[in-house]
Fold this protein.
Amino acid sequence: MSTDLPAPAGEPVPHRRTWRLLHGRGRYVGDIRLPGLLHAAVLRAPHAHASIDAIDTAAAAAVPGVMAVFTGADIATVCAPWRGTHGLYPRLAAPLQHAVAIDTVRWCGEPVALVVAASRAVAEDATALIAVDYTPRPALADPEAARGGGPLLHPDLGTNVCLTAAHEAGDVDAAFAAAAVVVEETFRFGRHTGVPLEPRGLVADFDPSERRLTVHHSHQCPHQMQHEFARLLGLAEQRVRVIAPDVGGAFGIKQQLYGDEIAVCAASLLLGRPVAWIADRLESFSADIHAREHVVRGRIALSADGDILAFAVDDLHAIGPYSQYPRSSAGEGRAVLAQTGAPYRYRALRARSTAVFQTKGMAGHYRGVGQPIACAVTEALVDRAARKVGLDPVAVRRRNLVRAADLPWRAPTGLVYPRLAVADCMAALDAHVDLAALRRDCDDARRAGRMRGLGLATFVELTSRGPGFYGAGGVPVSSRDGCTVRLEPGGGVRALASVTEQGQGTETGIAQVIAAALGVPLDTVEVITGDTATTFHGGGTWGSRSMAIGGEAAWRAGRALRAEILDVAARLLQADAAALDLRDGVIVEAATSAARLTLAEIAAVGHFRPHELPAGPQPQLVASASFGPLDGPFRAGSGIQLAVVEIDPDSGAVRLDRFVVVHECGRVVNPLLVDEQIRGGVAQGIGATLFEELIYDTDGQLLTGSLADYLLPTAADLCDIELVHVHAAPPESDGLGLIGVGEAGTVGAAAAVLNAVDDALAARGASIGQIPCTPERILTALGAI
Amino acid sequence: MKPAAFDYVRATSLTHALDLLASADPDGETRVLAGGQSLVPLMAMRLAAPARLVDINRLAALERLEVIDGRLVIGALVRHHRLATDPRVASAAPLLARAATQVAHPAIRNRGTFGGSLAHADPAAAFPACALALGATLTLASAAGRREVPATAFFEGLYQTALRPDELLVEVAVPAATAASRSAFVIFTRRPGDFPVAGLAAVARAADDRSAVDRLADIRLAVFGVGDTPLLADTAAAILESGPIDAARIDAAVAALDTLEIRDSATASVRYRRHLVGVALRRATAALLRPEAVACR
């Protein structure tokens, strides 16, 4: 196949769901009304760490309209506890976690009881009447204290360290000894979360007559949840159906199993009635998955010529009180180890990552999973080392980027890159912006007393992973996805895809691929996703994979159906199938384009008049394919992000003046959707760098638990995000050979903005190694306060 | 985020509203509902759980906005958007007009009321500081009659005012600006429309002698967003009034801000806020001296 995909794949088709959602026709979990529906509210722990001595639910249960009040022990009668283990990390300390705390709470916001009532308001009234006797225990909020010891969160584990992983390659000590310049710095990353517009929520509907559970769930991985609900609730998996209707954003926040969510399922089991629970924004901040609380000590060795000789990183990150489930807490540190120095040709690496428990909210996967941390540390070290040795940071990057001649690049991280287009991206950046002129502009501004900075970040994004991590680690998470494509009697096409849609346009891309594979108009293809009863078992949304994996499955299913359609047509026309083609929904003679049959005619014969077909196989008019990457552990996209900022030296405020992303992800199914993915990811990376932070006090109380305190970037805080796409040769593949794109923007944005801020500060002899770069931190770095 | 149950009464007249406020609800507190932009979120988060709401939104008499006898009279129900756009406000109280464009976001400004902002007395709010700086007089009504309270005596503490439970803030009067009036409004927010990290509302009068371009009189500086109430920086004002405003005098005025009782928050330390108050005073002073240059962030 050529680099270009057949139309309508490759075209900038607007997101299919937009029209419906803008007309208020969205169907989110909160819109689902079932007969007899009850509503749950969760009582959450007010302490970061405490034993539960007694719970008195009598007053709450007596409130008119309250159906039941469930404690942790009540829920545990039907819901098994779990441990977030990972078979590839046998030393990972995974504490036992109950859906609702039974005897100990370990973060402010951990579920303590569930009230089920006729309305959410009544349920909230009743939660206020539950009397819980707590004996507070010491909080453990600081990850560095947790690594050193501190009060044990799980005495049975005997440690507050969940996992230490390490990797070493090359002669690190020799590299540092030979270096002209060594820079060592500690970088601190604030705790963030994904803040999807639609909060988490579900409607669980258990039918005791058949022991059948249907869950309408705002989640990105419904198949994973079907498996877990069945396993933990003791149900037959084939009678558990998880439906993800419209989902308003997820970003990794809706990727794990949550105690509050499975407790709602358990409540439905116990009551035999449907139960709804939608997180409100306050409980979202306290109980959604958080991320990125890292302290990284990083070192780089640079030669006098600007060759990067070695990196050494010691990463510490905090995961809250448990290992997340079912995916475990191994992935975050693994990504840091795997991505340090990713775009560069260096030879020696010493890397260690330690995950520690603490009495703060659960922390784990959020868009980029560890990659933004590795990128920020790498890129900040490159800038600092370049300045220290007296070279232009851009020139140092040019010198060290992995080149085409280096492929396949065997990185010191142990990863092998069959293709990596970072050098092409640098060339494209040079074609788009005059870096020397930008540099002069910053320098001129400085001479005029202003603080202007230019930051660059080269990044690599690992996408579309195979089964090597979860599957091989015994974690029941699919790295595959499947698609069924069928010809409906009227000649239209209906597809059932296991990938899921949270607003990113997956269904649009799948429809484009199927239309291209079949040769039918785009609007004749209907795509259904998010229903485990009707679609293949598949991975859903995680790790930038929907199009690269789900699109591949759709392509293969589409091609198979097309082959059958042409075969049926050939039999009807007594022609050679190879001489026919399906173009724009019409069977034509391939050589002349002369129309012979419509798809509706084929469909009518297949469905209603199969007796008219000459002898041969029965018409199926449906084809399926499932696909998972088995040819490599990942496919890598890459790029460069550039930020120009100006700092107000009096207030410390950072204004973003320019942002450019050069990106390479092989073939593009829909450039509009790719642009949206990158811009959205960049916005989240900028938010992380300038605004967002979950701040806890030393007692483990969350201080920034509302949208008034946890500051998301708004349109007014961003500048235009200029995009440049590079199209290198796609990966070797017998299919589409697509590369994912979902996390690219987030992976590099923080590094670019941090470097730009640091560049502005460097002119005044200051530096900052912490995000978010708040005005107060900048003024502190400047010595102004 | 569902509020606790409450009774709701829509007042049909000012007398009706005052009668409701005078009759204590046996189940608990009665709160006045104006724009609801602060109260309703507090109720949704169950940080406030009034037993009864008295909705005054239909009381047209409280929407008054006029200049009488050298005073701009602002009814309690005048919305922020009206303050930002009404030409009478722009000429009689440009400080309020400017502040109203920077308070929160358009949707909030369409509902939020001037009286509600003062009566709520959120220390982060800009309008209480403007009222202090302008020397506003607040008219409080109850079934027993009316009384006037100067802004300096109205703000008593964190969300605490001189309003008694049976009283309603009905209108606010500020002296109308003259040709010699100067004002400046400086607010530091992390994002446009956020609660401020620190802010300053300042008014002054140009010196009578037109050649004394570096002199200001009757300076009133109200710092907000940093303490329990808006804070009048009288010492700093007196320093600025005491002679030609040069760099040394501005430095001295900024130094005098050190006596202000500034509090920290989860995201802003005292020293950061104190620094910003100083920056605000420098910017405000520049704007007061050169009214053609608009002070902003």
